[in-house]
Amino acid sequence: MLSTLTDLFNVRIGAAKRAAFLYIREGTLWLLRSSEKLPLKERLEVYRGEGQSIEEMLSEIGIEKESLYYLLSPGLYFRNRITLPFTERQKIEGIIRYEVKEYLPDPEGDYLTDFYTVDTEVYSFSTEKEHIHTLLEELGSYRDNLRAVIPYDTALLYAMKSLVDDESYVLVDIRASSVYIQCVEGLRIRTGIRVMGDGVGDADGSRDELFRELRSQLIMVFKTANPSIVYLNVARSGEKTGERFSDLLKGMEISYQEVPHYRYERSLQGSGDIGAADVLPLYGMIQEVNQTAGRVNLLKDEFRPRMKGYVSVREFSIVGGLLLILLILATSGLAIDIRTRKGQISLLRERVRALSSEVYGDPSVTLEESKVQVSEMEGRLDSLKTQTDARFSCLQLLKELSLYLPDDVVMEYSDLIIGRDRIKFSGKARTFSDIDRIRQELLLSEYFTDVRVSNTGTTGSTEGFTVTFVFDIDVVEDLSGGD
Question: φ and ψ at 79, to 5 degrees?
Fold first, then answer.
């Protein structure tokens, strides 16, 4: 059964592509659909699914081309903190998987790792690749829509960062049969503890055992950290547990308050059993996805999302300055080239007229012969016109090349040659996988028929290893066939 809550939030924003944010908690599927980019333009739609698969829920809601972001539940990933003598993200990415191996249950296992940094501290999150395989199987036909897999911890961190001013606090997320305790100091996730309990809603021994465990965990947290306040996020399904937990905090003389949901909540009237606290992690996912730095995405390596074939405003802005400079430099040369081509066309036309006069004035030349000669001259005219076609100008091909180069891949160019039917450029990149990604995304352009890579190799320096490359791109001769 699918429960729906629309118009839950009232947040402003500009136009953006649609996205769906999804997670599973205690067997319940939660989904929030909204604009992908902040600030939000329209109200958010919240859905809850019971007794159905992820693919069935997405199909029932009507998800089609929306980007999907999935929240990975606690227990499906491992969190570690290490200190490094450098802060460059590229260097950290090169070593992080090896640095955290000894802290994982199976050092020889197959893991995916991503991280965020605060000063020289690196906060890493690792999950087994098998979990991602399972998720993709559950998504079925929607697997290509998946853009990111985000840990539960970081989603809560960014949700609270957008709602409160405190940098040190304890967040207690209470559900029907589990409680999650997150301790944050200076925007650093110090602790993430999940306490499970059977029969939480019943006044029996298992419920008492749960609260004994919660009390012990809170005592440990306050001994090792100095949070200024405790925030409670009590889902509708965990209201009874939330009441007793409030009494527990009062007995321990710990001050607390509820998460200020009013800052994003518009109205819950008529919403049934869906509350703003239920979707706090989904709200945090939106905040994290829109971070330019510090976001964590465990969809890495062979699971990296494929390009969808569209260009974002951010990509335009990155190459805008370069294109403006190139336009200024090339305008004078382009004008001279156009004038030259026009002069050649005029000269050919004069020769065609002279030839026609000669042909029709000389009876020794037959009509068929004159038609052949005229056709040959017109073919040369068409060839010259094609060379001045704006669709295949050097600026257009440069723009097409820029639009399909991924903005998150670090490259250094050393040479660039643009011809009418061929582009060739060389340089350096960080890894062989980056070069392969560049090739795959360039093939998405309708202008490029083939992209070849040659002369790849590695070089070493004090700043790390780089991979040299030479890209050889064939340009399509005619785009009319794709209209």
Answer: -110, 135
Tokens 């110090």, residue?
190
DSSP of 431-472: -HHHHHHHHHHHTTSTTEEEEEEEEEEEEEETTEEEEEEEEE
Contact between 438 and 429 under an 8 Å Cβ cutoff? The reply is: yes
Q: Rounded to whole angstroms, how far apart are CA atoms 30 and 48?
A: 5
Contact 44, 32 (CB under 8 A): yes
Q: What is the pLDDT of residues 300-343, one digit of tens each?
A: 889 988 655 444 555 556 667 777 777 776 676 667 778 788 88
Give the per-residue SS3 of 353-415. Answer: HHHHHHHHHCCCCCHHHHHHHHHHHHHHHHHHHHHCCHHHCHHHHHHHHHHCCCCCCCEEEEE
Closest alpha carbon to 26 in 211, 281, 247, 221: 281
CA distance 349 to 331: 27
Query: Length of the chain, please?
Result: 483
Give the model's pLDDT for residue 204.
Answer: 53
**What end-to-end distance do the CA atoms of the chain give, in Å?**
44
CB 177 within 8 A of CB 195: no
Q: In this structure, which amino acid lies at residue 46? A: V
Q: Give the Cα separation of 108 and 98 in Å (integer).
A: 10
| Segment 88-123, tens digit of pLDDT | 989 999 999 888 988 898 888 899 999 999 888 999
pLDDT at 258 over 50: yes
The pTM of the whole model exceeds 0.70: no
User: Which residues lie below 8 Å from residue 234, measured CB to CB, with a gap of 6+?
Assistant: 174, 241, 242, 258, 277
